[in-house]
Amino acid sequence: MRTFIAIPLPNECQILLEQMQQSLRACKAEVRWVAIPSIHLTLKFLGEVDPETIPKLNVLLSETCKFERRFELRLRGLGCFPNVRNPRVIWCGIDGETDSLLRLQHIVEYAGIKLGFDPEDRPFHPHLTLGRVQGRKNLQPLMDRIAEGSDLACGFHVDHFHIYKSSLKPQGAVYTVLNTIVLNEC
Predict the structure, then answer these.
(1) Residue 77 is part of which domain span?
(2) What's the pLDDT tens digit per position in 5-20?
């Protein structure tokens, strides 16, 4: 089964991202926008996973994260991967206690490696994917809007993350929570 590990977003942040996405949609660029309930902060994409591996992954992550403290993050800014001249992904940035986020991502990466998953070959850049560029039509107005920046102001508390199953459907991916790993309160 297709699997990934990610931090879910609270409703307040989803509402704000929906407003931002609507503003960007008004540019009428050829972008396949991500459904708001599907937006999450990915820590590790695992790909196809044997269902029998999930309990082992859950135990390993629960053990290695039991001393990891909860932390705060904020939505911050807009951008594109790989760059504004050749955008493929439109994203919202993340800031706040990013050292804690990076530590958590390293722990998740290490757990994956211990279970035989390939290490990520690119550096971790925390972001929320808002859409994927499909063509060049009306792209400049979209890039201008992104360059204007945003006044996103939504902080959120990270006290858990999920192991998700991703089922690809014609209308888009459907995510199902397989397990939840809770971070330490202290």
Answers:
(1) 2-182
(2) 999 999 999 999 999 9
